[in-house]
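>> received
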Amino acid sequence: MEWGLFVLAVLLVAALQFAVWRRLQDGNLGTPDSTGRSEAAPPADLAQREGSDDPDVQLCPSCGAQNDADYRFCWDCTSMLQP
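>> returned
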C-alpha cells in the first residue's frame, strides 16, 4: 500500500511538471487572457484623480491605481505601466 501511494504521488508530480512545461513552451504567458481585467476601459477621470501631477506617483493606464514611480507593474491589476 505504501509503494502504491508513493508511485501515485510521483506520477502526479510528473504530470504537473509536464503541464507546467507545456504551458511554458506555449510562449503566451505575458499576454492577457480574454477574461482579463486589462480589457476593461480605463477610468474616464484619470487626469482628475488626486495626486496625478505628483512626479512620485504613476497612474495605471488600465485601472487608474496610484503606483510608485519606480514600479514597472501595477500593484492592483498587475498590468504593465508606462515607462
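>> Helices lie at 2-26.
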